[in-house]
Design brief:
Shape: elongated
Radius of gyration: 27 Å
Distance between the termini: 23 Å
Helix content: 25-40%
Structural class: alpha+beta
Oligomer: single chain
Length: about 375
């Protein structure tokens, strides 16, 4: 009998304990009452407005691929920065402009392209090249970036298409790095997917927040086309225009809603205007309306017990919210509430053991009391 008891005790103690799990103690979703907002969509082209962490607020104009014009340069920068990362504020390596690029300047001027006006053997840092690309939409620099990275426009376009496929941009096809070719096409929804990914690259976000291009050689400052920067929370974007594309604009704006930083990303494509300004003006109205539509609800105050850790053997440790649980949305939207992260087996009060997610909001969770592993008694008497 003693041997049997000793064997059972030993078996219970050496058996692995279950992995702890976090369970919600508050509602798993929040529905905002009312009707979905009616945004002021432009009468032509196509548009999409998306809110990070929440989804698409609305769209108009269908999803047929349309020429991108210089909005293609968002992908050019995205691909280049993934291959050649830049730290925040870093200038990066210095590249030399090819004689071929300089020789094409008269042709680009004749066609009315936007250019920096490079010269043979001119030296540009990576950051200045990307600023010229994204701020003043320099086609000559777009083709040099393609050459520096992949050796040719064709090889670089293949990289652009591979990146588009990886992002789920099913209505997109790139044939050149500048977007001048009308065969480079995309959709508003695809461009929102791309800009969301690009804005997560710090160097990209830094560059598109600049209203003007300031050359290193002391030359004249040149204003960019995104004149919404600094207004209505707009933090970045890219304009584009050709006769075939019309006016295009992709944009990102940040709105603080009761302490929750909320990012709106949108695209306006195919505006029949003599410049990109038609798309920028349409986007301005969408940004204002989207920001005004955002509302918030507080599901739990700071310090409230909103979840608990289940040790798998009957032990429950409550978790409190390190900040108010505030969910942002718009009328007619239901926002899921959940938890992220694998909790540790042990933690002191005040330690972060997971995150409560509520749309765009992420609230750290901490134990209301010391989180301990199951005791010897709990391990001995477990049945499962």
């Amino acid at each position: 009998m003693l041997v049997l008891v000793a064997g059972v005790v030993t078996g219970q103690l050496v058996r692995p304990v279950p992995d702890p799990a976090v369970d919600l103690a508050i509602t798993s979703s929040h529905a905002f009452p009312g009707q979905a907002p009616a945004l002021p969509w432009p009468s032509g082209g196509q548009s999409v407005v998306h809110v990070d962490g929440l989804g698409t607020m609305g769209s108009s104009g269908g999803s047929a691929p349309t020429p991108t014009a210089s909005v293609a340069k968002v992908m050019t920068a995205y691909v280049y920065l993934r291959e050649h990362p830049l730290k925040p504020g870093e200038a990066g390596p210095v590249m030399t402009v090819s004689p071929q690029a300089a020789a094409q300047i008269p042709m680009r001027k004749q066609r009315g392209e936007s250019i920096l006006g490079v010269t043979a053997n001119q030296r540009l840092t990576q950051r200045k090249a990307l600023e010229a690309l994204l701020v003043i939409s320099a086609n000559d620099v777009a083709h040099e970036l393609a050459r520096w990275d992949a050796g040719s426009d064709q090889a670089f376009a293949a990289k652009m298409n591979a990146a588009a496929q990886s992002l789920g941009m099913t209505g997109t096809r790139y044939t050149d790095p500048s977007g001048y070719d009308s065969t480079t096409v995309s959709t508003a929804a695809d461009q929102v997917k791309l800009l969301r990914a690009a804005m997560r690259i710090p160097a990209f976000a830094e560059i598109v927040s600049k209203p003007a291009y300031v050359p290193d050689d002391g030359g004249a400052t040149r204003q960019g086309g995104n004149y919404l920067l600094g207004q209505y929370g707009v933090i970045g974007g890219k304009t584009g225009y050709t006769d075939a594309a019309g006016g295009n604009f992709v944009f990102a704006a940040r709105k603080d809603v009761q302490g929750v930083s909320t990012v709106i990303v949108g695209a306006v494509m195919g505006q029949q205007s003599p410049s990109a300004a038609g798309a920028v003006d349409a986007a301005q109205q969408l940004v204002i309306a989207a920001e005004n539509a955002l509302v918030a609800a507080t599901l739990a105050p700071k310090g409230a017990k909103v979840a608990h850790v289940d040790d798998g053997l009957g032990g429950m440790t409550p978790l409190r919210a390190a900040s108010p649980v505030t969910v942002v949305g718009w009328p007619g939207l239901t926002v899921p509430v959940g938890v992220e992260g694998d909790p540790p087996r042990q933690a002191g009060t005040g330690e972060r053991v997971g995150t409560l997610t509520a749309g765009a909001a992420k609230v750290p969770l901490e134990p209301a009391r010391t989180l301990d592993e199951p005791s010897i008694i709990e391990r001995l008497i477990r049945l499962g």
